[in-house]
TrEMBL record:
Transmembrane segments: none
Pfam families from the UniProt entry: MarR_2
Keywords, comma-separated and alphabetical: DNA-binding
Name recorded for this polypeptide: MarR family transcriptional regulator
Xref: Gene3D superfamilies: Winged helix-like DNA-binding domain superfamily/Winged helix DNA-binding domain
Gene source species: Metabacillus rhizosphaerae
């Protein structure tokens, strides 16, 4: 692969991550302001809501959210410490070493409110001229 081509690939990757980081920072900020949630906490609520029984083993959840076992455990503990009742922990009856986390009715309500904020923030972000220009530039770089 030519050096110029490699540089374009790196440039495309950096442009992509720049857009992603800008939008992630906006989501993190607005979730904290409006719902006292981090983006990772939002992801936990979302992923739990998408399962048929609204519960997952902590191990499954940690890989979906992209956290270590200890970080996931701390995140769930913080949720519990908030006293909002969004999550509930259960010991697995089949494997006493495994711990399930389930979404409660309060958690579903919190998720519904946060989803509105997320969707509005994403719609605003992707309609902004600066983001559109960066994305269009990225598309143009990839097409070359």
């Amino acid at each position: 692969m030519e050096s110029n081509q490699k540089n374009q690939l790196i440039s495309s990757w950096l442009s992509f991550t720049h857009v992603q980081m800008k939008v992630t920072d906006e989501l993190e900020s607005i979730l904290q302001q409006n719902h006292q949630l981090s983006l990772k906490e939002f992801y936990v609520l979302l992923f739990l809501s998408e399962t048929p029984e609204k519960k997952l083993k902590l191990q499954q959840l940690q890989s979906m959210v992209g956290l270590s076992q200890s970080a996931m455990s701390r995140l769930v503990s913080r949720f519990e410490a908030k006293g909002c009742g969004a999550l509930k922990r259960h010991i697995c009856v089949d494997d006493r070493r495994a711990i399930y986390t389930s979404l409660t009715n309060e958690g579903e309500e919190q998720l519904k409110k946060a989803l509105g904020t997320i969707n509005e923030t994403l719609a605003n972000a992707f309609s902004r001229e600066d983001i559109q220009k960066e994305l269009q530039g990225l598309i143009n770089q990839i097409k070359r």
